[in-house]
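Ticket #4471: complex job returned nothing on first submit. Input attached below:
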Amino acid sequence: MQWPDWSGFWQSPQWLWLALVFLVPLVIHLLQRSAPREITFAAARWLQERQPQSWKRLQLRDRWLLALRLLLLATLVALVAGPLREPGGDRGSVLLVDPRIEAGELDSFLQQTEGFDRTLWLQPQPQPVTSTEPHTGDLWHSLSSLAAQPEFRDAHILLRSGVNAGGYRALRYSPHWQWHTLQEAGDYPVPTPVMAVIGDQPHWLEPMLQQLADSGEARPEIRTMADAAALDPREADWLLYNRPGALPESARRFARGGGLLITDERVTPTADPGFAALTGDPGPARQAAALGRGSWLRYRGDWDDSAFYRRPELPEQLWHQWTRQDWPLHAAARPRWSVGQLPGAPVPDEQVATPARAPLEQPLLLALLVLLLVERAVTLSRRRADG
Amino acid sequence: MELLDPLTLARTRDLAWLSRHIAAGVLLGVQHSRRRGAGLEFQQYRSYQPGDPINHVDWKLYARSDRYYVREAEQESQMHVCFVLDASASMAQPSFAVPELTKLQYAKCWIATLCWLLQAQGDRCSLLVLNDRGIGRIPPGQGEGHHHRIALELQRSEATGHWPGAAQLQPLWAQFEPRSQVVLVSDFFEREREISDFAQRLHAAGRPCLPLQVLVEAEQTFPFDGELRVRDPEAPGSSELDARSQRRQYLEAFAQAQQALAADFAARECPLTSVQVEEPLADAVHRFINQHSRVA
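Support reply: We reran it on our side without changes. The output follows.
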């Protein structure tokens, strides 16, 4: 639950009228005090007449009840004045940092540009930069998912490069974002491929990716899929197909559409696409064939066999083989977008849900109810005790 | 028979009926034949009135005349009981729980009830209603008609003024016959022991004075809170005070005064019976009778 920032609440003179509201119970108590209850009491002779004490007349009776009533009014005012508060309030400025930026670069940027209250990684769920550095995600996807979140509507965004690889869907962004880049256009970074896996993941895949990430190489995003039919070459770059038998037509279509199909020799083509053996580097033996706009990389033998994966250099070798195949070409062919000319559509303010006030109003309403009950109970019990 | 609630007590106008109703409750379980007593001599026939016990109707006479007659018997007078009711302004104090019921109303019902019980056993009753504005007086007598007269006089009386001075009391002393008992009904809120002195003087003259003190509950508990403006009905003006701070002191002073009063009467072997108007009247009558078994 987020409580609003009340600083500055009392500084504006429009709240002075509250003083009038709080005068009401004060006046009631003053009036009540000035009119004592009158009784006829035959046994009055055993009562002592009080010395007239003028100062005591100024004392308020039932100070607890008065405090309760003031509190009740304050709650009521807070409840009623809810819509008058600044929507959302001032949350301070947020800096969203491209995960590809090194810690040193970030430090030097923060020294030049100050005044950020929070510095978060640019991710679908932003985490503070003090936490571990996240995997390089899809900037395009991260930005689109943050565009409609009110918390980040006015964020500052720090990118490594002014030009970045685009995605398949339209970019959604907030018109209030302020962009910062470390390099204006500079070298265009090769984007990290998205890898789909069909069939069981080969058991060497996860350790391999982990080791790649630990050694500082990029770690591709893995999407495990049941069927190649739903696979779109515009959304995934590589397909690791691990189902022995004939290659289905959908996987072939993916390769023809521009993807890289990776299999071992247990996967057989329906018609020979004209494999050519690739040699000349120390990795596992493989053959490749061009399929439409993409290609098929087929490893010799069974890759679940220890002869395939018992190599100290396996992660680097496989990564090298995969990225060398035709990834630079495809990456370079992908659309780019620059900070200066944003593609896609801005998310207008009307579509952004204002921060819900319900979490504040419900406890206030509850408090009001409880206070009202307590106040009534105290008052009624007083009245009964009086006679 | 259910006990009468205080509100009924406060609202019923017909004291004669009410007292008989209450007395029936007090006498619940007492055998009629015993109550009638031995050696009753026939005195007169009287026409039947609603409320008369049906076994008093003379059925033979009814067969002859086709009218209901009640046999009235003359009873040997055992005793003369004189009721003295204090009708000073403090007796107008209403109960705080049942504002319709005052001490005086309670005392009237109480006297009428006891009077009915006494006349039922053949004793003679008389009544004195005392305050300094005037003195109501019913001479001794017996029978239902006499009970009606007492009930009427009680109904007429109002609580006002103070306890009468010595000069006003002077002509009354002759009323207290030698073998009479006095039942003094008051709240015993006195300025200078004037009521106690009255009882003292009766006692010294050999007329036992049986005291009944009528209070309201609030006088014994002082359940007030906050600022009060208190008016004493027998004193001019009013005083303001803080109930909470006064309470302890008041309760102590009141208990002390009560103790002194009770000790005063206990020394004369006439224990003080103290009742609250909030308690059922039949209970109060019972308590009084048990404390002074000589009376009933």
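Chain B has two domains: 6-26+77-291, 41-74. Closing as resolved unless it happens again.
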